[in-house]
């Protein structure tokens, strides 16, 4: 039997157990929660260990870093763009990623739409919300979210599948709960508008420090790096 020395396999299995426990705690089906293994700065060997443990979905923050990994590993797994995306990288992004989780402005959505049309594709995206209003955070401000979704809904080659957010960091996971709850309420508001070409099935929220709270508040996608791959160098 092949020996894994990175600890990634055990870590991945442990995170999955925690997902299941958090889901069951609030009467949810654990299978409706997708785990994105955040592989930013992580080497190929550790990514392969995660795949061997069952990881099927990876998140990357930078197009150039992701490109090298995707060229080597391929699309046996899904790749999500979770970092801030510059419009001039949209062409590469639509050819690399299964989903872009970080669309936060109309200009970027239009460029993704244009590049997707050229490639004969329809790209799944999430709209990133700056739920806390922090100046240092990417994402559209909550009060402008409905307007942005309404505009993107008119783009033929982009499909909105939900919302993504990143709350302020705190050592206390409970601190994030109000932000996760706010995103859930925003999703309900957008669902009520019944925009064509818009699905609100996904809520991407929760990371290593607070993903269990996010699951309790309705997350369908969690993004976990450190708890799987260890602290970044």
Explain what the structure shows.
Helix 1 (8-25) crosses helix 2 (44-53) and helix 4 (90-96) packs across helix 5. Helix 2 links the parallel strand 1 and strand 2. Strands 1, 2, 3, 4, 5, 6, 7, 8 and 9 form a nine-stranded parallel beta sheet that branches. With 233 residues, this protein is an alpha/beta fold. It has helices at residues 8-25, 44-53, 63-73, 90-96, 106-119, 145-152, 177-193, 211-216, 226-229; strands spanning 34-38, 57-60, 78-81, 99-103, 123-130, 140-141, 158-165, 198-204, 221-224. It has a single domain (8-229), classed as Alanine racemase (TIM Barrel, Alpha-Beta Barrel). It is globular and about 45 Å long.
Oligomerization category of the chains in this entry:
single chain
Query: Can you tell me the number of structural domains?
Result: 1
β content, as a range? 15-25%
Let me know the CATH homologous superfamily.
Answer: Alanine racemase
Helix coverage percent: 40-55%
Summarize the helix and strand pattern as letters. HEHEHEHEHEEHEHEHEH
Largest sheet: 9 strands, parallel
Number of helices: 9
CATH secondary-structure class: Alpha Beta
Q: What's the CATH topology name?
A: TIM Barrel
What is the straight-line distance between the termini? 29 Å
Rounded mean pLDDT is 95
Which regions have little confidence, pLDDT < 50, spanning 5+ residues?
Answer: none
What form results from the Cα inertia axes? Answer: globular
Return the structural class: alpha/beta
Using the CA coordinates, give the radius of gyration: 17 Å
The name of the CATH architecture is Alpha-Beta Barrel
Number of strand elements? 9
């Amino acid at each position: 039997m092949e020996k894994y020395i990175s600890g990634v396999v055990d870590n991945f299995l442990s995170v999955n157990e925690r997902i299941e426990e958090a889901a069951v705690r609030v009467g949810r089906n654990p299978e409706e929660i997708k785990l994105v293994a955040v592989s930013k700065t992580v080497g190929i060997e550790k990514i392969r260990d995660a795949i061997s443990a069952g990881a099927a979905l990876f998140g990357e923050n930078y197009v150039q870093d992701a490109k090298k990994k995707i060229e080597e590993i391929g699309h046996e797994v899904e790749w999500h763009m979770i970092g801030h995306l510059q419009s001039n990288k949209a062409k590469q992004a639509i050819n690399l990623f299964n989903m872009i989780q970080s669309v936060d402005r109309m200009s970027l959505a239009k460029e993704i739409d244009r590049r997707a049309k050229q490639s004969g594709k329809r790209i799944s995206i999430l709209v990133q919300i700056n739920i806390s209003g922090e100046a240092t955070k990417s994402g559209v401000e909550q009060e402008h979210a409905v307007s942005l979704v309404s505009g993107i809904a008119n783009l033929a080659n982009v499909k909105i599948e939900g919302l993504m957010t990143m709350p302020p960091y705190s050592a206390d996971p409970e601190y994030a709960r109000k932000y996760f709850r706010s995103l859930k309420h925003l999703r309900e508001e957008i669902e009520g508008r019944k925009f064509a070409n818009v699905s609100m099935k996904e809520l991407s929220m929760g990371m290593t420090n607070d993903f269990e709270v996010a699951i309790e508040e309705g997350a369908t996608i969690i993004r976990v790096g450190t708890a799987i791959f260890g602290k970044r160098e």
